[in-house]
Amino acid sequence: MICAKKIQEKKIIEILVDSFEKIYIDNSINFIVGFDKDRKKKLQGLFKFQFRMALMFGNVFINEDNDSVILFLHSKKFTFKRLLLEIDLALNVIGLTNIFKVLKRERVLKSNHNSTNYIHLWLMGTKPSSQGKGKGGRLIRETLDFYSGHTIILETTAPENVKFYQKVGFQIFEENNALNYPLYFMRHV
């Protein structure tokens, strides 16, 4: 496991785009980027935003094979740099017509992240050609060891992801359909 640096931004974004580009289910990523002809460009913009936020306010971990990545947030303090990133995200990925929909999503997430004493596993992706080989499982176990003694919270939409996270010790603490797709909120202590 390697703690990623800014210089690895392009590689991290590539892994995440490869991981999510062909997933067409209702989930948080597709809720934001949609399915139009600019999908790949929007995914790149979303993951650039998330990578930069995680570098500022958390950690980004990549495995030694450069095919699996996890982004964690420790906090989301206000900074002008964060504001500029959010404006760029709104204009170039979300779009002004979808901003209220995405703000509703953020309110739903925030209502289930009401504790201040946790670390947010914000995003995890493994290239499709490397999935099913235990690489993501190894990376998440290594990061859980890194954060030993801390509460980790995540949300996911896919039942197969729930099973994956349960295998490494996460438990569901809330489930809802407030956004018209299932959201499973999970905790690891």
UniProtKB/TrEMBL annotation:
GO terms for molecular function: acyltransferase activity, transferring groups other than amino-acyl groups. Transmembrane segments: none annotated. InterPro entries: Acyl_CoA_acyltransferase, GNAT_dom, Trichothecene_AcTrans. Residues 1-189 form the N-acetyltransferase domain. This is N-acetyltransferase domain-containing protein. It comes from Chryseobacterium piperi.
